[in-house]
Amino acid sequence: MEIEKEVKKMTLGHEFGAGAACLKCKDKCDGFELHFWRKICRNCKCGLAEHDVAMNSEENKKVGKLFEDTKYTALMAKLKTDGVPSYQGNMVAITLPPLSPAYVLPPSAAASVVPPSAMAVRYIELLPPEKRPVAGTEGAAYRRQQMDRQLPEHDQDPSKCHELSPAEVKLMQQFVRKYKDEALGVGDVLLPEEMALVKAGGQGEGEGLGGRLGLEGHLGLEGHLGLEGQSCRHCQQPMRMGEPAVYAERAGYDKLWHPACFVCCTCNELLVDMIYFWKKGKLYCGRHYGDSEKPRCGGCDELIFSNEYTQAEGQNWHLKHFCCFDCDRILAGETYVMEKDKPVCKPCYMKNHAVNCSSCQKAVDPEAQRVSYGEFHWHAEPQCFKCSGCSKCLVGQRFMALKSFLFCSVECKKKIMA
Ligand SMILES: [Zn+2]
Ligand SMILES: [Zn+2]
Ligand SMILES: [Zn+2]
Ligand SMILES: [Zn+2]
Ligand SMILES: [Zn+2]
Ligand SMILES: [Zn+2]
Ligand SMILES: [Zn+2]
Ligand SMILES: [Zn+2]
């Protein structure tokens, strides 16, 4: 215990969110306590995002860091001018007429050239209602949860990872550099007809927009501004005149998406704050871009940069992280049971997860033969799986079940249930 505390102090110094109540487990969790390498709460095993923590400043720091040292630095800096490239995606609030909610906007939507509020509000309205990032609604909770899921801090910052070797740190830095140079971007919200103007106008004119979008100024041959042939890259349906579309610079401005169609190709979730990773013609969220490049550890959720790792149960694991989800005992060479996709050692399984035999009331060993019927279970042995009336062994026989009672025949059933 003491050693574990020490290790925790040394590696993950921050105690952010400590003690926060779990919104999912309520009273069952004594408050957030960071597991020293799993990135989840030791008490209830939920993530930090499930706990009641004010994430705004942490999220902003995270996204600021993600775009630090990229060509988007300027865009981020423009949105906040205190020196460090920062980000205030979820702080851009637009006040609408009384009684309307305050909208929370991705920066590029807010920074658009047309009357920003109208465009941004229209952009939000085009999202599914339960996913609109409106402060204090279900959509805000969705955004927060996706922020946590799609952009793991430990995919961008080696210091957020647990005990990396110098070689692993180097590989990770190269990985981060590569995606910042080749894949990472933020969507631009624009009317398609505006984009056509930008394209037609070329470099000289569209000072603000052209500059901001980093257009090279070469014109397509489509001098006319029609929307013919412009369909959403995701759903293939046509775009509508006067409705904002999302563009991704990495994809090229010849491609566009309906706001609700700007989703990750793997998880199909709305790309949080329009932060995307572009690879081989597809949009990914940060997590799934990472997964497409590297194996991810099923224990600590970090990408694996070491050559040595193990594959078990359809997942990848750092050698030292294939351990019991309940007690952290290393499982190499041990008997374990998969419980909700997580390996659990046999003692913990017996203590915390095993089902009890309806006959003898004892926990059923994971390796033992058992019979299950609805929510009832029995040892598949003559002394447990037997007729409640005449005690005849029912293993391999026809039987009737009534709650936890078993019968060999209607006669025995009548005898007991009468
Ligand atoms: Zn919880
Ligand atoms: Zn908890
Ligand atoms: Zn679409
Ligand atoms: Zn995804
Ligand atoms: Zn791991
Ligand atoms: Zn255990
Ligand atoms: Zn039994
Ligand atoms: Zn019987």
UniProtKB/TrEMBL annotation:
GO terms for cellular component: cytoplasm; focal adhesion. The keyword Cytoplasm applies. SMART domains: LIM. Residues 89-196 form the PET domain. InterPro entries: LIM1_Testin (IPR034958), LIM2_Testin (IPR034959), LIM3_Testin (IPR034960), PET_domain (IPR010442), PET_testin (IPR033724), Pk/Esn/Tes (IPR047120), Znf_LIM (IPR001781). One of its GO terms (molecular function) is zinc ion binding. Its main location: other. Residues 230-293, 295-355 form the LIM zinc-binding domain. The keyword Acyltransferase does not apply. It comes from the Eukaryota. Keywords: Cell junction, Cytoplasm, LIM domain, Metal-binding, Repeat, Zinc. Pfam families: LIM (PF00412), PET (PF06297). It is found in: Cell junction, Focal adhesion; Cytoplasm. Belongs to the prickle / espinas / testin family. This is Testin. It comes from Cynoglossus semilaevis (Tongue sole).
